[in-house]
Automatic annotation (TrEMBL):
<dbReference type="InterPro" id="IPR036864">
    <property type="entry name" value="Zn2-C6_fun-type_DNA-bd_sf"/>
</dbReference>
<keyword id="KW-0805">Transcription regulation</keyword>
<feature type="domain" description="Zn(2)-C6 fungal-type">
    <location>
        <begin position="21"/>
        <end position="49"/>
    </location>
</feature>
<keyword id="KW-0479">Metal-binding</keyword>
<keyword id="KW-0862">Zinc</keyword>
<dbReference type="Pfam" id="PF00172">
    <property type="entry name" value="Zn_clus"/>
</dbReference>
<protein>
    <submittedName>
        <fullName>Uu.00g013290.m01.CDS01</fullName>
    </submittedName>
</protein>
<dbReference type="InterPro" id="IPR052360">
    <property type="entry name" value="Transcr_Regulatory_Proteins"/>
</dbReference>
<dbReference type="GO" id="GO:0008270">
    <property type="term" value="F:zinc ion binding"/>
</dbReference>
<dbReference type="GO" id="GO:0003677">
    <property type="term" value="F:DNA binding"/>
</dbReference>
<keyword id="KW-0539">Nucleus</keyword>
<dbReference type="GO" id="GO:0000981">
    <property type="term" value="F:DNA-binding transcription factor activity, RNA polymerase II-specific"/>
</dbReference>
<keyword id="KW-0238">DNA-binding</keyword>
<keyword id="KW-0804">Transcription</keyword>
<dbReference type="InterPro" id="IPR001138">
    <property type="entry name" value="Zn2Cys6_DnaBD"/>
</dbReference>
């Protein structure tokens, strides 16, 4: 009897030392065959394989069966409150990984400097179900994107992970809509933090038109509820309505300032020959133009990044302004930044016309146009509450939507060409 107890204890002790394998096998304390994306031990026994170590260790997801995804994902607000975090510890690794996963436009391993935003999102997700659902959605969709290789997001959708990511996204949207039905300080904060994640989610999905809508709504909430001090038409300084509101504009500038990961691919002609894309950002150029293009194009992105850095400094000053006199002085800085953006766009058009007059511009340049348009909208709304502002913002928001739609189409074409080469 004693011998059997000792043997039993040794068996239990051995099982608790399982360090690898999928989450399901680790919970069951059985040996996992570590087959990916789903281990055969789970699949063969009819269980749901919960996958391997998550980018966000804090969030150990337990997705429902895929057949129930649409039935339980959208309807009930009650279901969103049943989810609880598995830990209250937020580690630097969690923050770094979420910060890196915010952007899919950039190189995957580039740190875009959104550690503060990631920390606030993770902290809020401990008590805010919509934010938690949004983070779980981003994680699942991002994992799906990275395992699908060069397939277009619209093509590589039929996986349990992708379906689960969409379900969590729907629950985040539904919970957020419920919170905003009676907006208060907490509801607005939740909306702006969710907006940041939603922008990233739509990038993962390749839906840039929807991404632009989230950008417009997030910046609109910031302006409507005065996240920063603003000047009235009579030059009276209006203090910030709520100093605790997250700054979506700062997040967006960091997000789009990072280098573009999409390399330019040669385009196929009708005769099945390859022609090089003559573009400022391309690594493949016409021999006679290569030196000139490569010397001009980095300067275009460098200049736009410089303007973006100056815009962040300007926004920081706006947040700290305490008098109408100081605010009026900042208006000259704002005008200077807008002039710089205008000059940058004129130079970009000149370069494109000279170097590639008949062809479409590189995808990386389209992303720069998107970034330019975001900076325009951010600057227009800063320190301004004039009667003409709404009409001006509507015009620029429409342009943002148009550019985003073009970027979305070109990203889909990029993935299609990657998948076919």
């Amino acid at each position: 009897m004693a011998g059997s107890l000792v043997a039993s204890k040794q068996t239990v002790h051995r099982r608790t030392k399982v360090k690898t394998g999928c989450a399901t096998c680790r919970i069951r304390r059985v040996k996992c065959d570590e087959n990916k994306p789903s281990c055969q031990r789970c699949v063969g026994t009819g269980r749901t394989c919960d996958g391997y170590e998550s980018p966000f260790r804090l969030f150990a997801s337990q997705p429902p069966p895929i057949n129930d995804a649409h039935a339980g994902g959208i309807k009930s607000g009650a279901s969103s409150h049943r989810i609880r975090p598995t830990s209250t510890e937020i580690t630097p690794e969690d923050i770094d990984l979420l910060s890196r996963c915010f952007s899919t436009k950039t190189i995957f391993d580039v740190n875009i400097g959104c550690d503060d935003e990631a920390r606030h999102v993770l902290q809020a997700s401990l008590t805010d179900p919509p934010i938690r659902h949004a983070v779980l959605s981003l994680r699942a969709l991002r994992e799906h994107l990275e395992t699908s290789g060069n397939l277009s997001p619209s093509v590589a959708q039929q996986t349990p992970g992708y379906d689960y990511g969409l379900q969590e996204y729907c629950m985040a949207l539904g919970g957020l809509a419920s919170n905003l039905s009676c907006p208060g300080s907490d509801g607005l904060k939740s909306a702006l933090l969710c907006c940041q994640i939603f922008v990233s989610i739509e990038q993962v999905r390749g839906n840039y038109a929807a991404m632009a809508q989230h950008i417009v709504r997030g910046l609109g909430i910031m302006h409507q509820y005065r996240a920063r001090p603003s000047l009235h038409a009579t030059n009276e300084l209006l203090p910030a309505h709520d100093v605790q509101l997250p700054f979506v504009d700062v997040f967006l500038i960091k997000l789009f300032a990072a280098p573009c990961k999409f390399a330019e691919l040669p385009a196929r002609t009708d005769t099945n020959e390859m022609t090089m894309s003559a573009c400022p950002m391309s690594t493949q150029q016409q021999p006679g133009e290569s030196r000139q293009l490569r010397s001009i194009a980095p300067d275009m992105r460098t200049e736009l990044t410089r303007i973006a850095s100056s815009t962040l400094e300007f926004l920081e000053k706006v947040s700290r302004v305490t008098s109408a006199g100081s605010a009026l002085q900042l208006l000259s800085d704002k005008a200077s930044l807008l002039d710089s953006l205008g000059s940058w766009l004129a130079d970009l058009e000149l370069v494109h016309k000279k170097m590639n007059p008949a062809g479409s511009e590189p995808l990386s340049v389209s992303f720069m146009r998107l970034f330019y348009q975001i900076l325009i909208i951010v600057l227009l709304g800063a320190l301004d509450s004039s009667a003409d502002l709404d009409a001006e913002l509507r015009t620029e928001n429409g342009r943002l939507q148009d550019v985003a739609s073009i970027v979305g189409e070109r990203v889909q074409a990029y993935y299609k060409m990657c998948g076919g080469t």
